[in-house]
Design brief:
The complex is a heterodimer of chains A (481) and B (409). Chain A is globular, with a radius of gyration of 21 Å. In chain A, strand 11, helix 6 and strand 12 form a beta-alpha-beta unit. In chain A, helix 4 runs parallel beside helix 6. Chain A has eleven helices and 17 strands. Chain B folds into two domains: 117 residues, Urease, subunit C, domain 1; 291 residues, Metal-dependent hydrolases (TIM Barrel, Alpha-Beta Barrel). In chain B, strands 1, 2, 3, 4, 5, 14, 15 and 16 form an eight-stranded mixed beta sheet that branches. Chain B has an eight-stranded mixed beta sheet with strand order 6-7-8-9-10-11-12-13. Chain B starts with a helix and ends in a 7-residue tail after the last helix. The relative contact order of chain B is 0.16. The N terminus of chain B is likely disordered. The chains are: A alpha/beta (481), B alpha/beta (409). At the A-B interface, helix 1 and helix 9 of A face helix 11 and helix 14 of B.
């Protein structure tokens, strides 16, 4: 919350945008980029990355991921309480992972002779935490103008900018988030603009470049923003200055993208003459129209979310997730029907007028209505405690008589955000074949007293609370107090 | 008449009572009479006709005290018209007392007190991010979160003077930390001189002083050591500047923020200076590159008196989470409970009336279903000055309206 204020100071309120896609589930395709899949056994649930990240229709690979799995011995965590986020809570359970993949989860798992065995007695295991809404790396610490790279607040539609081109892998906030159990983030442009640009979906691992962090095969998100922020930023700068101006701005942008898409689709089909001239803005928007880029839509108020759903209907795309959505509970039935997820806080409210109606029970009410709930951070501090935020939302829901299970609450920061990013066949649950993004907690992760003890990202021990050799520091932090 | 008096007597029975001033008492009674605690213990006789609250299986603690928030001074952060916490255009706003800016009808009050926070220090300036600019922000007021008027909410006003030696104060010194410190000294010197030469001041037979008469006058209790001076300082060197100046002028210093305090707990403890900290803060800035989760526990371990604060005013209720995280980072549970009850009462000079469950103290009492810091814990009762606060707010009304759709308009 404190960094929210920083964003205000910059006139660039941080926020997320939802994605729209044609299909509900992740599409599978050949691994386009570097071999995250590696030599992993291809089991039934085994994921293959979707192909859409590095291409636009008719355009070749662009800025491909160079992510490589870090080689590691197999790991067996034994005798822990395992929350799979897939419906199971296993007492005295074990989990084995090898070559970056989960091999087995259960009460009777044998370790290969070369496995590192971790005693999980009294401890808890969950999938790696996934945040659909982060500005880490694009609003990096120490938070001066030099690191303020999250809002291209020079015109209201900047679909052409890509968050990865701002992302700083040496942001000292990255290790803090890792220590909170986070293994995957969507780094988003801010919410100054109606259309802020493409998101970057990243494995949260120490790296020299953002390319080494790019989640192979992830769907880009397109950040869009409703309401007060674009109005505030552009009200005195040529507009939009009203909510109706906001709507007109989105519509104009997508009308141009429709024409662009037609031109390219035709050329891709017949290859007659020169290819059409490329336009980066329309390229991103056309990919939304094709369902390859997911709309991630910062939107607080219920009535505005209804407007945005109409916009999506007009242009034939899906909004993958509303972000912030403090009033989602008012239209929980509609959101469930539309299949649009909500990425929300547990208790942020009141810092601006469109956030006034936030209530603790938002998550529980959306869940109860059959919607898909994600607890997100939008904050470099909050991202370190997404488990705690989910706990607050779960227990307040229960106290209001809405029976949220522990498994559901864990899904709010694992399986459901994986779906929002189109990665649900790859990560988000502890099931054989899934990527070995695993967190070992000191206690029930829905307790305020729990801390992440070990964090494995694709099988790599990226954080160990009790071993300084596994507590990565960014370059920035070297030699600092 | 008798019935009226009896109606003012409440017995909370059967709970596990954490008086804070002493060890927990199982199966104990807290007796409240006329807004005060009349008795606490395992063998308290409940007068006939007292209202009984069965707290069997529950935990009973003092109401939580937020060491530095802005309740009543801040309604909606981005709507300037609802914010009352700064006197702009005055770098040395010592004469600015926030009290009459407090809005007793703020919607934030009901939202937060029903989560167990009964008392807050309403501070001028901003200790949060971004912090306010300026050197002296003004006078803070200690309030209970119940009452239709400022007079009824008020506990102590002014309760403290609030000043700033962090990076955000630099402009008040022309761009250098050294100049900020020098300006603070000059203001304190001028305040001393003003006190001995008020007549000269009125006749304009004195050199220009570093602040207005109202501001210099307001600093007198600080110079006498009668009013604490809260200084926001995060970098170790800024903390040490604050300690140095406090020693030179014999001030009752309270450090706020103190992000790098963990580096020098011995120095802070030796100076007898308490701290107000926010345990969940760990994002580095150039003002505090050494900020870390373990600050509060390391300070407490080093013998420093630690009180907690939640600077996000609309979620002052997260003081519970701050305390729980302090425990997760190494503070003892008892230290953390004290840091949100008795310690803030002590450092703000009201421990004779607040902060613990003892006979004679103001009846700010919370009945919890379990450990106050645990998310699983709900709230059964919040008493403020003996009044059983309705657990209702704008948020509970929204919940009722939308719990089933379509809504009940």
């Amino acid at each position: 919350m404190r960094h929210l204020s920083t964003a205000f100071a910059l006139l660039v309120f941080a926020a997320g945008a939802g994605c729209a896609s044609a299909g509900a589930r992740t599409t599978t395709a050949a691994a386009g980029a570097a071999g995250a899949a590696g030599a992993a056994p291809q089991q039934a649930a085994a994921p293959t990355p979707a192909a859409s990240q590095d291409t636009a229709a008719g355009i070749g690979p662009q800025y491909p991921s160079t992510y490589q799995r870090h080689p590691n011995p197999p790991v067996l965590i034994r005798n822990a309480t395992i929350l799979t986020a897939a419906g199971q809570e296993i007492q005295r359970g074990s989990i084995l992972f090898k070559d970056g993949r989960i091999v087995a989860v259960g009460t009777n798992v044998q370790a290969p002779s070369d496995a590192t065995v971790v005693d999980g007695t009294g401890k808890w295991v969950t999938p790696g935490v996934i945040d659909t809404h982060s500005h880490i790396g694009v609003y990096a610490a120490p938070g001066t103008f030099a690191e303020s790279d999250g809002n291209e607040a020079t015109r209201p539609v900047t679909a052409e900018v890509w968050a990865e081109h701002s992302f700083w892998p040496q942001d000292p906030q990255i290790p803090l988030a890792i220590a909170g159990g986070v293994t995957t983030i969507q780094a988003l442009p801010g919410s100054a603009n109606l259309i802020g640009g493409r998101s970057a979906v990243l494995k949260l691992v120490p790296a020299r470049s953002v390319q080494e962090m790019k989640f192979p095969g992830a769907h880009y998100g397109l950040k869009m923003a409703c309401g007060e922020n674009p109005k505030r930023v552009y009200g005195q700068r040529g507009g939009p200055s009203t909510r109706m101006g906001n709507m007109a701005g989105y519509r104009e942008a997508f009308i141009a993208a429709q024409a662009y898409r037609r031109k390219w689709d035709k050329w891709n089909k017949d290859h007659q003459g020169d290819p059409p001239e490329r336009n980066l803005r329309n390229e991103s928007l056309a990919e939304v129209l094709r369902g390859n880029i997911y709309v991630q839509n910062h939107c607080y108020r219920a009535d505005e979310m209804m407007q945005m759903l109409d916009l999506a209907h007009e242009f034939g795309f899906k909004i993958r997730s509303f972000h912030h959505a403090v009033e989602a509970y008012k239209i929980a039935d509609v959101l469930a029907r539309e299949g649009t997820a909500v990425s929300i806080w547990s208790d942020w409210w009141g810092f601006k007028e469109e956030a006034m109606d936030g209530i603790y029970e938002n998550a529980a009410l959306v869940q109860q209505a059959g919607g898909r709930v994600v607890i997100h951070s939008d904050d470099a501090s909050g991202i370190q405690r997404l488990n705690q935020e989910a706990a607050k939302a779960m227990y307040h829901g229960r106290r209001a008589g809405i029976p949220i299970t522990r498994d559901q609450a864990v899904r709010w920061f694992t399986a459901n955000p994986a779906w929002v990013l189109g990665l649900d066949s790859l990560v988000g649950t502890l099931e054989p074949g899934k990527m070995a993004d695993v967190v070992l907690w000191s206690a029930d992760p829905l307790s305020v007293y729990a801390r992440a003890l070990q964090v494995y990202n694709d099988g790599w021990l990226v954080y160990d609370r009790n071993d300084p050799a596994h507590q990565p520091k960014t370059d920035f932090s070297l030699g600092q107090p | 008449m008798i019935a009226f008096l009896l109606a003012q007597t409440i017995a909370i029975t059967g709970g596990t009572v954490y008086p804070v001033s002493g060890p927990k008492i199982e199966n104990a009674t807290v007796l409240i009479r006329d807004g005060r605690i009349a008795a606490v213990g395992a063998n308290v006789a409940v007068p006939a006709g007292a209202t009984r609250i069965d707290a069997s299986g529950k935990w009973v603690t003092p109401g939580l005290i937020d060491g530095a928030g802005q309740m009543g001074l801040r309604e909606i952060e981005v709507v300037q018209g609802t914010n009352e916490y700064t006197q702009r255009g005055n770098d040395v706003a010592a004469g600015f007392n926030v009290l009459e800016g407090i809005n007793p009808a703020s919607t934030l009050i009901a939202v937060n007190r029903m989560e167990g926070v009964t008392t807050t220090l309403a501070v001028p300036g901003s200790l949060g991010v971004p912090p306010s600019a300026g050197l002296i922000w003004g006078q803070a007021a200690l309030i209970d979160l119940d009452g239709a008027t400022i007079e009824t909410m008020q506990i102590k006003s002014p309760a403290a003077m609030v000043a700033n030696l962090s990076e955000s104060a630099k402009e008040a010194g022309g761009g250098s930390r050294a100049a900020v410190a020098q300006r603070l000294r000059r203001v304190l010197n001028d305040a001393r001189e003003y006190a001995t030469r008020r007549a000269d001041y009125r006749r304009r037979q004195i050199q220009d002083l570093g602040a207005s008469a109202a501001d210099l006058e307001a600093l007198q209790p600080v110079l006498r050591g009668a009013m604490p001076l809260i200084v926001m300082a995060n970098r170790r060197s800024d903390i040490e500047t604050a300690l140095r100046i406090a020693k030179e002028y014999k001030l009752r210093l309270i450090l706020a923020g103190a992000a790098e305090g963990w580096m020098i707990p011995d120095e802070i403890a030796a100076a007898g200076v308490p701290v107000l900290v926010e345990p969940m803060d760990n994002i580095p800035s150039f003002d505090a590159l050494g900020i870390r989760y373990e600050n509060a526990p390391l300070l407490a371990k080093g013998g420093v008196k630690v009180a907690l604060m939640e600077t996000t005013t609309e979620n002052t209720r997260d003081l519970r989470q701050q305390a729980g995280n302090a425990v997760a980072s190494g503070m003892t549970w008892e230290q953390a409970l004290r840091a949100v009850t008795l310690t803030p009462a002590e450092i703000l000079g009201v421990a004779d009336r607040y902060g613990s469950l003892e006979a004679g103290k103001v009846a700010n009492v919370v009945v919890w279903t379990g450990d106050p810091f645990d998310f699983a814990t709900g709230i059964e009762h919040v008493f403020i000055r003996g009044r059983d606060i309705p657990l209702r707010s704008r948020q509970t009304e929204l919940l009722e309206r939308y719990k089933t759709l379509p809504p009940k308009y």
